[in-house]
Design a protein that fits this description.
The chain is built from eleven helices and nine strands. It is α/β, with parallel strands linked by helices and about 300 residues long. It has a five-stranded parallel β-sheet with strand order 2-1-3-4-5, with helices on both faces. It has a four-stranded parallel β-sheet with strand order 7-6-8-9. α3 packs parallel to α6.
Length: about 300
């Protein structure tokens, strides 16, 4: 079994531990504060999901940013950085924008990392750190941590996570040549994370959109060979419209975060079917450290 497949299967345990951590430690995203959350790559998609989820819950206004495009000097009550490695250059540069009086928190896979050292509060998710290049359990565990903070019951989610590990892959995996992942609300960030996992792991043509946006152009590429995965209840008529193109439609039957487990598993299966090593995706490293890249050094 590949390393990434092992980490995908470990997610129910990691999510349970994240819930315990949220109950036992000071919150990184206290209720009532105006908060910015920033990340890169998969952690950016986690940041978007976390921001939309927290704000929709009524816990406080929350903005999610790609670290390289973040505006963190806008008078936020707190800034939260999500970083698996804790070494990503753009995160460290973004934290440099934060006014000195603004509290900061790091949600990291390495509590001894530079990002952790740069923040006032550290949420140690080292128990969910991915050793593989492609992020799977770290990003979902970060989202579960915030779900626990805003007092959402995780019992049903954990049951769905176990179910997701046993679900068969949709359709005929060998016939899939492109995938689109759609979501609404906070699930848009998860859709983006799912499509990225497919691109990274399997080198697959994979896209993601807010579900209501799919009709506004992207549906033009639907058809035989396409798989369109809906992470939550689809807009009225959309599933039927996509199916009419000849595409395979997957409508979620589990919690959206558990559906992301299914997408991660599909990514590994497609990679292996193509003769690729899911633990060594092309052109990628675990962390982007720009001083090494810009100087021509190895990571």
């Amino acid at each position: 079994m590949s390393l990434v497949a092992e980490e995908i299967r470990d997610q129910p345990r990691a999510w349970s531990q994240a819930a315990e951590l949220a109950r036992a430690t000071p919150p990184a995203l206290p209720d009532g504060e105006r908060i910015a959350v920033a990340g890169c790559g998969s952690s950016w998609h986690a940041a978007k999901a976390v921001a939309a989820l927290r704000e929709a819950s009524g816990a406080g206004e929350t903005d999610g940013f790609a670290a390289s495009e973040a505006f963190l000097a806008r008078g936020y009550d707190r800034v939260v950085a999500i970083s698996r490695s804790g070494a990503t250059t753009e995160i460290l540069r973004a934290l440099g924008q934060v006014p000195a009086a603004t509290p900061t928190a790091a949600v990291v896979g390495d509590p001894r990392s530079p990002v952790a050292a740069a923040c006032d509060l550290v949420v140690d998710l080292s128990f969910a750190d991915d050793r593989s290049v492609v992020q799977t359990r770290f990003l979902t565990t970060a989202v579960c941590y915030v779900r626990a903070l805003i007092a959402l019951d995780l019992d049903e989610l954990l049951a769905d996570a176990h179910a997701a590990l046993a679900e068969p892959h949709p359709g005929d995996a060998e016939s899939i040549d492109r995938v689109v992942v759609l979501g609404r609300g906070w699930r848009v960030g998860l859709a983006d994370a799912g499509a990225l996992a497919l691109r990274e792991t399997a080198g697959l043509w994979a896209e993601s959109y807010p579900a209501m946006e799919y009709r506004h152009g992207p549906i033009a590429t639907a058809g035989p060979g396409a798989l369109v995965w809906l992470l939550d209840e689809p807009p009225s008529g959309l599933a039927e419209q996509v199916a009419a193109t000849g595409a395979t439609v997957v409508e979620a039957k589990l919690d959206p975060l558990a559906e992301l487990i299914r997408i991660q598993r599909l990514a590994v299966a497609l990679a292996e079917g193509r003769g690729l090593d899911p633990d060594r995706p092309a052109h990628l490293e675990r962390a982007v450290v720009l001083d090494l890249i810009e100087s021509g050094g190895a990571q």
